[in-house]
Design goal:
The protein is mainly alpha-helical and about 180 residues long. About 80% of the residues lie in helices and about 0% in strands.
Length: about 180
């Protein structure tokens, strides 16, 4: 994590740590989806958090969901800056990448349907035991490998495989019960 010396008070540092923990994986996966390079995505996340820390006083009042939106937006901008600097894409390709992302985000109907689906999935997920829920979220929402999940949860990859199998089974059962 970046140096928190930029932040003036211990309260701000603690708020920032929480924001970091809540948003790191989301931002990393946004970056990875855009540039397909783990190292560059990690670097962009650190740069994004540094930018946020530099202007933290301005944004510290935001709600959790708005802060997540801000973090993702800063991340996208950092990735676009990295792409421009590296000249990995022509200006037309870069503009297409930006426009495609903006079109999807600004399509109100798409967003409403997606939010409705997410709410339903979250409702079903809440019905299964936490250990399975956490494993499924890491696997399918954050798209982590079984090895990465095992490292995070401090268990073997076989245990992760078992949790995914059982979690999917419990999720299907809860889905069926919820849709009846």
């Amino acid at each position: 994590m970046i140096s928190l010396d930029i932040l003036e008070t211990e309260e701000d540092r603690e708020k920032f740590r929480k924001i970091y923990e809540e948003n790191y994986l989301k931002m990393y996966h946004v970056g990875l989806a855009m540039i397909k390079n783990q190292t560059d995505a990690e670097n962009a996340v650190q740069e994004a958090f540094l930018s946020l820390a530099e202007k933290f006083e301005k944004y510290s009042h935001l709600s959790s969901s708005k802060m997540t939106g801000l973090c993702v937006t800063i991340m996208k901008n950092k990735i676009i800056d990295m792409i421009r600097k590296a000249n990995h894409y022509s200006e037309d390709e870069l503009e297409s990448l930006i426009l495609c992302d903006e079109c999807r985000e600004h399509n109100a109907q798409f967003m409403a349907e997606e939010n409705e689906q997410k709410a339903f999935v979250q409702k079903v997920l809440k019905q299964i035991p936490e250990v399975f829920r956490e494993t499924l979220v890491l696997k399918y929402y954050y798209e982590l490998s079984n090895r990465e999940i095992a490292r995070i949860q401090k268990v073997s990859t076989k245990t992760v495989e078992m949790r995914i199998y059982r979690g999917k089974r419990k999720f299907k059962e809860a889905w069926y019960e919820t849709t009846r």
